[in-house]
From TrEMBL:
<feature type="transmembrane region" description="Helical">
    <location>
        <begin position="71"/>
        <end position="93"/>
    </location>
</feature>
<protein>
    <submittedName>
        <fullName>LysE family translocator</fullName>
    </submittedName>
</protein>
<keyword id="KW-0812">Transmembrane</keyword>
<feature type="transmembrane region" description="Helical">
    <location>
        <begin position="41"/>
        <end position="65"/>
    </location>
</feature>
<keyword id="KW-1133">Transmembrane helix</keyword>
<feature type="transmembrane region" description="Helical">
    <location>
        <begin position="172"/>
        <end position="193"/>
    </location>
</feature>
<dbReference type="InterPro" id="IPR001123">
    <property type="entry name" value="LeuE-type"/>
</dbReference>
<feature type="transmembrane region" description="Helical">
    <location>
        <begin position="6"/>
        <end position="29"/>
    </location>
</feature>
<dbReference type="Pfam" id="PF01810">
    <property type="entry name" value="LysE"/>
</dbReference>
<dbReference type="GO" id="GO:0015171">
    <property type="term" value="F:amino acid transmembrane transporter activity"/>
</dbReference>
<keyword id="KW-1003">Cell membrane</keyword>
<keyword id="KW-0472">Membrane</keyword>
<dbReference type="GO" id="GO:0005886">
    <property type="term" value="C:plasma membrane"/>
</dbReference>
Length: 225
């Protein structure tokens, strides 16, 4: 059985990981800041569904096979990198289209093209729980570093003779609980600042920052860093 000391140490490790700004934080903040609370919670649930999958697979020893197989790891890494670069590039492209539509040469359009581009940049796939869940779980599962982290950390906290699946799910549950609490803070912060963040200029800057973070994460993943 896992001791309270082990759970406490694991909580500290994943707590620091959760608080470190990264891809998950950028996705949740950007979605919530646009007023898409259902989709933001969908992203949260999707990310944590992925965390539960990684924890379960690690307990079963599946992710150890992934990290041991260089080809499988490289395929997953490149798939994840391509997805992230596509997602980040899509956001950046929408903001660039909006910027070009507001140039003097595009003034004759009456701003309708700019408004449409802004809507595309801010709306994404709409304020749906399922859409956010899909985005969150795909982002999480295509990140092989999550699997590598669990393979490196999780077995150290599973005592000899204990049920690997039960212990793994328990520890993943601790990670999920901390992440959901932190997500509540992020969504509440975005809700407080929503009036400022939903201004057209702020929305464009937010999308540019988020798109850059996501694309940069994908490039780092592709480079194996």
């Amino acid at each position: 059985m896992i001791t309270l000391d082990s759970i406490g140490t694991f909580t500290l490790i994943v707590g620091l990981l959760t608080l470190t700004p990264g891809l998950d934080t950028a996705l949740i903040l950007r979605t919530a800041a646009l007023g898409h609370r259902r989709r933001a919670w969908g992203v949260v649930f999707g990310i944590q569904s992925g965390t539960l999958v990684w924890g379960t697979l690690t307990s079963l020893g599946v992710t150890a096979l992934l990290t041991a197989s260089h080809i499988a790891y490289v395929i997953l890494r490149w798939a994840g990198a391509a997805y992230l670069v596509w997602m980040g590039g899509r956001l950046l492209w929408a903001t660039w289209r909006h910027a070009s539509s507001e140039s003097p040469e595009a003034a004759g359009t009456g701003g309708t093209t700019g408004a449409r581009a802004e809507t595309e940049a801010g709306r994404g796939a709409g304020d749906t729980l399922l859409g956010g869940w899909r985005q969150g779980i795909v982002t999480n599962l295509l990140n092989p570093k999550m699997g590598a982290f669990y393979v490196a950390v999780l077995p150290q906290f599973i005592p000899t003779g204990a049920s690997h699946i039960a212990s793994g799910v328990l520890l993943a549950g601790v990670h999920i609980l901390l992440a959901v609490v932190w997500s509540c803070v992020l969504i509440a912060l975005a809700h407080v600042l929503r009036d400022r963040l939903q201004r057209p200029s702020a929305r464009l800057y937010l999308d540019r920052i988020t798109g850059t973070v996501i694309a940069a994460f994908g490039i780092r993943l592709a480079l194996g860093q």
